[in-house]
Amino acid sequence: MPDTFLSQFGQTRSDIKARHALLTPESHEWITQPGWSDTAFAFLISPDLGAKFAMALVSCDQAITAPSAAPGIARFVFCTKGALNLSTGDRLGVEGFAFVPPDSDITLSAEAGARFVLFEWRFLPRGDIPEAVCGSVADIKGSALRGDERLTVQKMLPADAAFDFEFNIMSFEPGASLAYVETHFMEHGLLMLDGGGVYRLDTDWYPVTAGDAIWMGPHVPQWFGALGRTPSRYLICKNYNRSPLAPR
């Protein structure tokens, strides 16, 4: 049944719980933000939900230059359509990404028609703050997760304790799944890129497909199994390299 049909009768697959949330496209609310001209935002995850970070889908009708992040706030962007440019001279095409450290003078611009995912969080410094990082998913070799060749992970940031967040692409062959139900103090933000399957969050089981987003709070039991005839992929972040007693 089409999502537009469900919406006109007040239904949605989105489900907001105290410790997790499924955010599906038919319930997105697109808004403007101060300082961003000709740009629409769908904020899927925010501190008001209980998260320690914000995650938004961003759509640019015209070419724009983004305002700087607030003091102490780090950014990670992932391009899903068109292209983004950094003042460093780096150009990000589809599935290009960039980490911009807090209080940086690096500026981000988007070409007309670009769409991207924007993550922002209050950075937890540990010694020297790392430099900006740019790259493309296509250039990252995947590695098998826990020896399962049907499930690969591509890590977009260096394995360096100076980074307090991790951003990965997880790829599943049809029928592949996480090895066990995970429970940990780190939280996640996730966007389905391709394919679909079933996600377990707490005691709930959700069918998910491309375009769906998920917030997983600390200590939420979580598991994913890929279904269908084509591979499934998702973009996922977690607050990493942090002690459970680190400042919120």
Automatic annotation (TrEMBL):
Q: Which residues form a coiled coil?
A: none
Q: Which UniProt keywords apply?
A: Hydrolase
Give every Cupin type-2 domain span. 169-235
Q: Name one Pfam family in it.
A: Cupin_2
Domain of life, per UniProt, equals Bacteria
UniProt GO molecular function? ureidoglycine aminohydrolase activity
Asked whether the keyword Hydrolase is assigned, the reply is yes
Gene3D superfamilies from the entry?
Jelly Rolls
Give the enzyme's EC designation: 3.5.3.26
Decide whether keyword RNA-binding is in the record.
Answer: no
**Which InterPro entries does the UniProt record give?**
Cupin_2, RmlC-like_jellyroll, RmlC_Cupin_sf, UGHY, UGlyAH_cupin_C
Check the record and name the PANTHER family matching this protein.
(S)-UREIDOGLYCINE AMINOHYDROLASE
Q: What is this protein called?
A: (S)-ureidoglycine aminohydrolase
